[in-house]
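User: Please fill in residues for this 385-position structure.
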C-alpha cells in the first residue's frame, strides 16, 4: 500500500473472483453485486463468451497500433452503430470515459472553432482537462484545467438560450441521466429544446452516455427515451464489461481528417474483441428487455419499503432516496449482508447499478438484505426514548 498514491477510500474487501452478479472475496465469502464497480459490469462478471473472446484474442494478437488494418475495430464500429440505432454515424475509439468526453469536446471545438462549453449543475464528465472543467465539482478541477465552461440548471431553457445567443458557444454537454450527481434527468421537453436550439445556433450537442448508455436505461441510449439525435455520443463503462475502452459516435456532419484525433491504445485488438463480445451478448441474451422487466419488478419491490421516499432514474440505473444519509446503510449492506451498492453526491441516495443480466431472484435477495440493513441502521435510532 505504501507505494500507491492514496487517493481512494477503500472498503476492507479483497475480491478474487466473480461470476455473473456474484463476487467472491479471498475468504470465499459471496457478495451480490448491485453496483458493477461504478456501473461498468454490463453482461455480468466473467461471462463465458466474453472470457473466450478475450482469451482467444490475446492468444492471437492483443495489440498493434492504429497504423494497420484492424477488422475487429471496423467490425465493432459497424455493429455498435447499427445496434444502437446510429448506422450513419462513425466511431472513434479511446480507453476511458473521460477520454471519450475529452475527444468529444475537442471535436466540437475543432468543428465550431469556438471554445465555450455549456454544462449542467451536478454534472460529472470525467477527470481529463476539458472533461473535468465541464464537471460541476471545483474540488477536482486544478488551475491548469482552465477552460471556458458555464454551468446551468437542468431544464432552464432561458439560461441556455441567453448563452447560445452570445455566439461563442462550441457545445452543450449533458448526461443522458446524471450518475455521480444523483440520478437527475432533464425532461423530454428540455432535451428536445437543446436538440433544436443547438442546431439553430450551429452548436454541437454532446450526449454523455458513459454511464447511462449500453442498455442501462432500458433503451440502448438514455436520450432515446426523448426522441432526439445528438451530434456526438460518448460511451465507455458497460462497453467493455471491465475491459478499458471508450469511444464517441460522431454524426456524418463532422469531417474526419488524418491526425485530427488519435491515441496509441484506443481501438486495440483485445479491447475491440471484448467490446464486440459485449454487444453480441447484449443482443443474444435480450439484456435490454431484461433491464426493463427487472426494473419494473425492482421499483415495485422498492415501493413497498416505507423508508424509501422516492426512486430516481430509469432501467437499472436507479437511485433510492431515503430521508437519512445512506453511508452507514451502504456499509451495513456490504459488511453485514454481502451486497455491493453505490453512493452519489446526493448523500441520502443509494445508487443501484447491477449487471444488466441481474435476475428477479437476485432482486429478492437484495430487498431481503436491504430491509434487514434498514432495520439495523434506522430502528435503533427511532427506538431511542
Ligand atoms: C457520466 C460519466 N461521464 C464520464 C465519466 C468518466 O469515465 P472514466 O472514469 O472512465 O474516465 C463517468 C465516470 O463515472 C461518468 O459517470
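Assistant: Residues filled in for all 385 positions:
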Amino acid at each position: 500500500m505504501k507505494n500507491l498514491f492514496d487517493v481512494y477510500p477503500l472498503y476492507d474487501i479483497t475480491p478474487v473472483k466473480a461470476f455473473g452478479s456474484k463476487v467472491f472475496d479471498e475468504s470465499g465469502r459471496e457478495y451480490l453485486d448491485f453496483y458493477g464497480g461504478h456501473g461498468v459490469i454490463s453482461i455480468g462478471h466473467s461471462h463465458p463468451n466474453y472470457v473466450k473472446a478475450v482469451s482467444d484474442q490475446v492468444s492471437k494478437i492483443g495489440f498493434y497500433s492504429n497504423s494497420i488494418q484492424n477488422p475487429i475495430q471496423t467490425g465493432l464500429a459497424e455493429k455498435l452503430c447499427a445496434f444502437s440505432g446510429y448506422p450513419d454515424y462513425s466511431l472513434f475509439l479511446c480507453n476511458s470515459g473521460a477520454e471519450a468526453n475529452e475527444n468529444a469536446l475537442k471535436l466540437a471545438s475543432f468543428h465550431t472553432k469556438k471554445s465555450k462549453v455549456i454544462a449542467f449543475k451536478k454534472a460529472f464528465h470525467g477527470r481529463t482537462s476539458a472533461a473535468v472543467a465541464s464537471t460541476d465539482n471545483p474540488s477536482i478541477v486544478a488551475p491548469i484545467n482552465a477552460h471556458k465552461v458555464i454551468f446551468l440548471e437542468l431544464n432552464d431553457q432561458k439560461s441556455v438560450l441567453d448563452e447560445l445567443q452570445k455566439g461563442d458557444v462550441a457545445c452543450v454537454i449533458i448526461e443522458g441521466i446524471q450518475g455521480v450527481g444523483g440520478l437527475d434527468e432533464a425532461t423530454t421537453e428540455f432535451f428536445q429544446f437543446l436538440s433544436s436550439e443547438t442546431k439553430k445556433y450551429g452548436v454541437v450537442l454532446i450526449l454523455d452516455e458513459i454511464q447511462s448508455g449500453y442498455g442501462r436505461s432500458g433503451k440502448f441510449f438514455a436520450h432515446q427515451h426523448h426522441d432526439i439525435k445528438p451530434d456526438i455520443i460518448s460511451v465507455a463503462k458497460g462497453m467493455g464489461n471491465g475491459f478499458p475502452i471508450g469511444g464517441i459516435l460522431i454524426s456524418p456532419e463532422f469531417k474526419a481528417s488524418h491526425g485530427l484525433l488519435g491515441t496509441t491504445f484506443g481501438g486495440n485488438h483485445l479491447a475491440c474483441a471484448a467490446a464486440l463480445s459485449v454487444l453480441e451478448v447484449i443482443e443474444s441474451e435480450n439484456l435490454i428487455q431484461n433491464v426493463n422487466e427487472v426494473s419494473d419488478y425492482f421499483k415495485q419491490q422498492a415501493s413497498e419499503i416505507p423508508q424509501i421516499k422516492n426512486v430516481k432514474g430509469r432501467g437499472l440505473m436507479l437511485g433510492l432516496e431515503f430521508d437519512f444519509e445512506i453511508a452507514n446503510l451502504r456499509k451495513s449492506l456490504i459488511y453485514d449482508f454481502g451486497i455491493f451498492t453505490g453512493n452519489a453526491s446526493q448523500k441520502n441516495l443509494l445508487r443501484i447499478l447491477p449487471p444488466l443480466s441481474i435476475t428477479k431472484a437476485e432482486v429478492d435477495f437484495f430487498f431481503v438484505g436491504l430491509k434487514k440493513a434498514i432495520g439495523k441502521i434506522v430502528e435503533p435510532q427511532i427506538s431511542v426514548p
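For context: The CA atoms of residues 285 and 357 lie 8 Å apart.
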